[in-house]
Amino acid sequence: MMINECGHPLCKNCVENIYARNSGNCHICNRLLKKNGFREQIFEDPLIDKETHLRRKLRKIYNLKNDDFETLREFHDYQERFETIVYNLVFETDVVQTNAEIQAFEDNYKDKIERNKRRLDEDQKWVEDNLREERAMKQRVNEGQEQDQKEKESITARTDTKAIMDELRDSNVAAEEILNRERKKQVEKEMEEKEEQEKRKRRNKEIFQTRKRQAENMSFTSAMRIAGRPYIHQNLELVINGPVVPTAIQINKMGYLAHMRPPSAGRVAGGYTATVGCSRALLESRLDLLVF
Amino acid sequence: MYSTSTQKKEWTFTAEQIDDQRQEVNQKFREKYKDFVEEGEHEIFLTCQEELSMQRIVEEAALKFADKFRPSIWPSVKWTAYAYFKRLFLKWSACDNSPKLVIMACFYLAMKIDEFFVTIDEFVGNLTTGNPSQNAERILALEPEIMRELDYNLTVHCPYRPFEGHLMEMKTRMLLLNFDLESIRNDSQRFFQLALQTDALLMYPPSQIALAAVKFGLKSQGKSNDVLRDFLNKLLGVEEDAWGGGVVPDANTHVEKLLVKLEMIENTVEGGTNKLSDDAVSNLQNRAGDLSNFLLILDKRRNDKWQAEGGIGRPPGEKDEQPVDSDDE
User: Can you cite an annotated GO cellular component (chain B) (predicted)?
Assistant: First the structure.
């Protein structure tokens, strides 16, 4: 599904059809939309998708950090204002006014915003540090592995040369032929190695990119979906170890209640019936009756 | 539910286990003083049998207390209190803790557990000995101790409701009886009263005790044993019945086994309540008095020895004070 700034999802084909002339009205809210404003919908709930998109956009403007303010209080006020703006835009209340406010804010803090574009706040720094450390550790592990690999290879190379010498000495095939064959083998091996290295590089890059994308899309407001087997209720098995307890219907039908004192009106009002008391007495008279 | 209860898991024993446990407790009490007892003085200690008799005397007296108690208590309170009492003296020695006081505290706790509301002042008002404030203080102090010793297994399943169940079942299934089943009720209550003074409630599930009470009641009314057998045949599904339950395989052996078990319970109850003669009681009281005097001497000897060794560490005989939370403090 595709989605535009008004937050109404539309399938890809329809977007192609309706917005063939690069602009058109939303099929739900009739707002004028541009075709290149459409993006892939990431979250199932359009509202959440809209919110994360807006947040990402606004973050570019509202990127002031704690130390841009004189007191913590001011910083908190700023953050709260930011939340209000997001709320306003998501639920489209006072849009014009809010947009004006954003514009004013951008004009006011132009320098700071520009400067903060290249600055990281503490959390981001911490994340970066951790990522860097993780990468370094992985590299160390890889290096260790490569070292081992190389050592192993040098050992096999030595045995290989020995094998070739033996073959040259013992067999009656022409020396040229043997050498050719070995050279060919070596070239093949090198090619293979190169390919392997490239593959590894590509894979690392991919991992890095997906992680980056994930970090960007992270939203703390989205509902977490927990996948798993659906719950199936099974009644607990009641081990009575005695004769079967009559059901409520049987109690009523077989005349047990003739021997019960009729409950007082107060108890009946409280939800008690003679059947309840009766079945309790009958159950308890059967529990573990057949323990020997 | 009894089948999943701590009563079944932790507090149901065979007769041998109970005996062993009592021996062990008795032995443990003797061990405590073994370094200070001189030749010939071992006789002063109570035997296991004497300890048990002491408990039985207290149990009998407590039955009267329970019957006289005002407001009058319902029977399950009594049963619960006795269950606590018997469980406790599988772990405690009757020489160490006064059974009289312990059973009072058991009653007080059982009333709380059974939601029979009585304030401590009302409760001690029912006691005839000692002064009220002292009694109250001692009972309240003992209450958390008891709960700890019981591992906080406080739910006790009594046979009174199962008894009603059996009676109702009989009335419903045995329509052709030529007498009123209610006539057995008094005798069955007497059976429960007797059972309280035995170990039956430590040995059998409440449903079986209740059935034994039915059997006892029928017998006391001079009814033939066949009435019970007939009832069990119907209940356990020897033949098909109007309830739609088919014939249960092994039902015949179940009936036979159950009848044997009921016989056992009856023997336990009737055999466990041989009353002591007045002579034996006063003799036992003398012995108990002698023992408590003797224990004072032993304590003194122990203290002297401790002093002679320079009085290092804590004075002997002091209990490890582990505070137990009590809501009364």
Answer: nucleus
